[in-house]
Design brief:
With about 170 residues, this protein is mostly helical. It has six helices and no strands.
Length: about 170
């Protein structure tokens, strides 16, 4: 009973820790690093867009004509300074299709690319916590000896005493 009360007292601490970690991850992932130069913006946007010709290569890495053309367009839109990085990427995705996005959108069916790994992590940690709790409870169990346990010990001691006395009788002078 004392162990259950102690376990219940720990839950608020774990819940607080989980909220703290999730909050820090959310703040860290949405943190604005301040103003960037146009060159940095072009590089950032071109790293998030896949080359429509190459396999698995970003527009930033690729040196073919299609990638050069997309990079020039990104450079022109950044120079106009009227659109955000996300708007530029959305425009490119609308022209070439969603498959050119190296980072999936966080809306619609593509949001599952973000949600499924996070849900799997949470479920895995919860499953491990429950398994460890069950294993611990099974290991602790009810440690009080039963009448059957006492009778087994008494029978073993009596048998050992008989064997000891028989051995002593056999070796008496």
């Amino acid at each position: 009973m004392a162990r259950q009360v102690q376990s219940i007292k720990r839950w608020p601490t774990w819940i607080l820790l989980i909220f703290l970690v999730v909050g820090l991850l959310a703040v860290g992932s949405t943190r604005d690093t301040g103003p960037r130069s146009p060159g940095e913006r072009v590089d950032d946007v071109s790293r998030r867009v896949a080359c429509p010709v190459c396999q698995g290569e970003s527009v930033f890495e690729s040196r073919n004509n299609a990638s050069e053309s997309i990079r020039a367009e990104i450079r022109a839109q950044v120079a106009e300074a009227e659109r955000s990085d996300d708007q530029i990427i959305e425009d490119i995705a609308n022209r070439f299709g969603g498959e050119v996005l190296l980072v999936p959108r966080s809306t619609g069916i593509e949001a599952l690319a973000w949600a499924i790994p996070a849900a799997a992590l949470v479920l895995g940690v919860a499953g491990l916590a429950m398994a460890f709790r069950r294993w611990r409870a099974a290991a602790d169990g009810d440690r009080a000896a039963t009448a059957d346990d006492y009778s087994l010990v008494d029978a073993a001691l009596a048998s050992e005493d008989e064997q000891l006395h028989d051995h002593e009788r056999d070796h008496e002078p």
